[in-house]
Design brief:
alpha+beta; five-stranded mixed sheet; 2 helices; 7 strands; 40% strand
């Protein structure tokens, strides 16, 4: 079973690219795994099978990120680049 997640990266004033991550999207894995990667690295992968600290494993034929006007959690977890670091965002906690 996979824990799906997405990484949302702001690319314009009201544009957020949402990159899909298929495996190991839970915070105890994703936050350390995302730490060495920049938003540009994630966007370059386009659609991700798994993020690890030493590798971003992209799908062979990746789909482009979904562009939305704000960060939107569509899967189990949502991660954003804020203040120079990756954070998990839980919009339901507000």
């Amino acid at each position: 079973m996979s824990t799906r997640a997405q990484v949302a990266i702001q690319i314009g004033p009201e544009e957020w690219a949402h990159t899909y991550v298929h495996y190991d999207g839970y915070p105890s894995h994703m936050l350390p795994a995302l730490a060495p990667w920049t938003p540009e690295d994630i966007l370059a992968a386009r659609e991700i099978r798994q993020v690890r600290a030493d590798e971003i494993e992209a799908f062979d034929t990746p789909r482009d990120p979904t562009i939305l006007p704000r960060p939107t959690r569509q899967f189990c977890h949502l991660y954003l680049w804020l203040g120079g670091a990756w954070v998990e965002v839980n919009p339901d906690a507000e």
